[in-house]
Amino acid sequence: MIRTQIYIPEHLQKKLDSLSKSRGTSKAGIIREALELYCAGLDESERKLKLSKGAG
Predict the structure, then answer these.
(1) How far apart are CA 34 and CA 6, in angstroms?
(2) How many degrees, rounded to 5, is the angle at CA 29 between CA 25 and CA 32?
(3) How far apart are CA 8 and CA 4, in angstroms?
């Protein structure tokens, strides 16, 4: 794994702290999960865009 640092707004930090405590998991784990979901959504959007261009 590669270590990285990010700056996030205070309101997101508070949400991250709360979610981490309620789930009993690390903040890093939540951020990794969120990135995986975000990237999967992008991949799906790109796939749909390619399909729509092919249909037009």
Answers:
(1) 14
(2) 155
(3) 13
As a whole number of angstroms, the distance between CA 48 and CA 42 comes to 10
Amino acid at 34: A
Q: Hey, is 5 helix, strand or coil? A: coil
**Tens-digit pLDDT string for the chain (56 aa):** 999 999 999 999 999 999 999 999 999 999 999 999 999 988 777 777 777 777 65
CA angle 45, 47, 50 (to 5 degrees): 110
